[in-house]
Amino acid sequence: MEFEKRFATEEQCREYLFKLRYPDGFTCPNCGSEKIWQIRRQTYRCSDCRKDYSVLAGTIFQDSHKPLTIWFRAIWYVVAQKQGANALNLQRILGLGSYETAWTMLHKLRRAMVRPGREKLRGRIEVDEVYIGGSSREGITGRGSERKVLTAIAVEVDDKGKVGRIRIKRIKNASAEELIPFIEEVAEKGSTIITDGWSAFAGLPSKGYHHEIIVSKNTNPDNLLPHVHTTASLLKRWILGTLQGSCSSKHFDYYLDEYTFRYNRRKSNSRGLLFMRLLENAVQMETTTYAELIGE
């Protein structure tokens, strides 16, 4: 009820987006003036250089035919569902006319779940590569698996074994050329990277990381790096449950982004804060059309 009252009109939604996009007040990128006035519902004009700016331009809402009130309800529904939402449920909840509209909205939101310039993982970090997806060829497991998507998973772990944030990314293979850049992308220099004895990780010390290797011939490989493989198991369960196993390879990276967004905020008790965080990301992301989504 509080949400419905706060965002009942298009004007209320636009005002909220304006404050998120310009938290310190608007400054004209062209001339630096702070003086503007509203000339249309979504457009403002600089009083000095007369240049026009739209509050929706350069966001995922640009060129959308759906009202902001519908978008805001979609975002609220997405963050309010602990396990996430699929397009069919979103279509039913919002009363949308087509499945394609709900699917497009969800995929635009998934692209906004990775915040530009987000902080890297730090401290002690377990890293391994894990196959996610359908059945592999009979008798083939581990690094030789086929017909699955190979992902690199990094998990923060403190001295007491408590899990912090995670990062997941699809990689082409389990070579050093794929794994080392992934670690450099997600982990701060000086962190301790915990891996198995796979040779691809041998170059970590030269990249500015402490490298801790765990090897045991008598232990199940999944038990060597338990936090990574627990994360992988939860991810597989989420794909089978929320997405009902329908997770196309074409858009797989964005499903990983959604899972990471949800997992890293799993302890948040404030749906309103999650709503705000996702909207903050949404106003920094360029829009993607349905044609571009299906053509990727």
Short description:
The protein is of the alpha/beta class.
Question: How would you describe this protein?
Answer:
It is built from 11 helices and 8 strands. It is of the alpha/beta class and 296 residues long. The chain folds into 2 domains: 2-111 and 284-295, no CATH class; 124-253, Nucleotidyltransferase, domain 5 (2-Layer Sandwich), CATH 3.30.420. A hairpin with a 5-residue loop joins strand 5 and strand 6. The longest helix has 16 residues, at 226-241. Mean pLDDT is 86; it is low at 135-141.
CATH class of the largest domain: Alpha Beta
The low-pLDDT segments are 135-141
Question: What is the third-level CATH name, the topology of the largest domain?
Answer: Nucleotidyltransferase, domain 5
Please outline the major beta sheet.
Answer: 5 strands, mixed
Q: Beta-strand level of the residues, as a percent range? A: 5-15%
Q: Sum up the overall morphology in one term.
A: globular
State the distance separating the first and last CA atoms: 39 Å
Tell me the strand order in the biggest sheet: 6-5-4-7-8
Structure class: alpha/beta
> What does the average pLDDT come to?
86
Q: Based on the structure given, which CATH architecture of the largest domain is correct? A: 2-Layer Sandwich
Individual helix count: 11
Order of helices and strands: HHEEEHHHEEEHEEHHHHH
What's the CATH H-level superfamily name of the largest domain?
Answer: Ribonuclease H-like superfamily/Ribonuclease H
Q: How many strand elements?
A: 8
Task: Work out the helicity level.
Answer: 25-40%
Radius of gyration: 22 Å
The total tally of domains equals: 2
